[in-house]
Amino acid sequence: MIATRDAYGEALAELGGENDKIVVLDADLSGSTKTGVFAKKFPNRFFNMGIAEANMVGTAAGLAAVGKVPFLSTFAIFAAGRGWEQIRQSVAYPKANVKIVATHGGVTVGEDGGSHQSVEDVAIMRAIPNMTVIVPADGEETKGAIRAVAAYKGPVYVRLGRNKVPSVFPAGHKFEIGKGVVVVPGTDLTFITTGLMTAAAVTAAEKLKAEGISARVLHIGTIKPLDKELVLQAAQETGAIVTAEEHSVVGGLGGAVAEYLGEACPTLMKRVGVYDRFGTSGKSDELLKYFGLNAETLIEEAREIVSRKK
């Protein structure tokens, strides 16, 4: 198990040795976001911008304009919140080659509470034109995603977590922007998941198999652009969809899937996530249970949607 933020720090430092155009900016949180790993290796290409997120975004846009490949990091609540206007105006509008990698997304921030638990950042970033939005499932996918993001020309928002998460993908897994992955085949329903909920869905699928329910697990690492081909295939072949994310059900993965299938292929569907409310303080594992972001909830929803399908 490894935290996606730790995998980010490792990948960024490796890339720094391969591409001297990569520069890194942080808002005084490099120890937590793990950009400090890059800073130690390449101090002349690391900029601590202080607690001034808007300024950090504007500076990154300027660096991109002169040919650098800037990665900027802070917590998700600050990246999508305090930096939003500059991200829209200075990064997305001119299609600046800026990589926003936000850590500590979702309720697993834990004891910091609702003020610091960003459950709406994916929706905010997804609504901005020209923005690509990525939420990796584990450390291995994070490493691949950071490499793909560095090679991609244009604005990207990558959402990472605080805690260690189970491995879903094998070493050397290749990440492709805009492409989902069928992790577990199935015919009765499909779990369409992202982030740490993909591991929970794999566990749920294994337990449902013992009950005679065949659950497919489709991991969506790129929320925008959505892999419409695999989503449509899942809807047509299984006839029932349960989305799951550590994010609000408003505007995130569940919203993206519902919007697309509502027009392309109306399908029985249930969204699992945070239901239009703020987070609260507590231990991360307790909060996942409190909000129903676990395998047990997915099993219950799978049983319910399969019975409705019949």
UniProtKB/TrEMBL annotation:
<dbReference type="InterPro" id="IPR033248">
    <property type="entry name" value="Transketolase_C"/>
</dbReference>
<dbReference type="Pfam" id="PF02780">
    <property type="entry name" value="Transketolase_C"/>
</dbReference>
<feature type="domain" description="Transketolase-like pyrimidine-binding">
    <location>
        <begin position="2"/>
        <end position="167"/>
    </location>
</feature>
<dbReference type="InterPro" id="IPR005475">
    <property type="entry name" value="Transketolase-like_Pyr-bd"/>
</dbReference>
<dbReference type="Pfam" id="PF02779">
    <property type="entry name" value="Transket_pyr"/>
</dbReference>
<dbReference type="InterPro" id="IPR051157">
    <property type="entry name" value="PDH/Transketolase"/>
</dbReference>
<protein>
    <submittedName>
        <fullName>Transketolase family protein</fullName>
    </submittedName>
</protein>
